[in-house]
Design brief:
Elements: H1 9-19, H2 35-46, H3 52-59
């Protein structure tokens, strides 16, 4: 696995977009995002794996 890729501006913009909308808009059945689901979704969408810890920190 190795070191995670550097988070870029595109990642941060998309993270903020996702948090401001319901996960149902992108096909999930739950109503609220968790840091873990944000990490999974963004890894699939952008190919950048980040621990849920970092997503919580970026959102502060």
């Amino acid at each position: 696995m190795g070191r995670t890729k550097t988070v870029n501006e595109q990642y941060l913009i998309r993270l903020k977009e996702l948090v401001s909308h319901s996960p149902r808009l992108v096909g999930y059945s739950f109503e609220r995002w968790t840091a873990q689901w944000l990490s999974k979704h963004l890894a699939k969408e952008l190919g950048i794996k980040v621990l849920k810890f970092w997503n919580r920190r970026y959102l502060r």
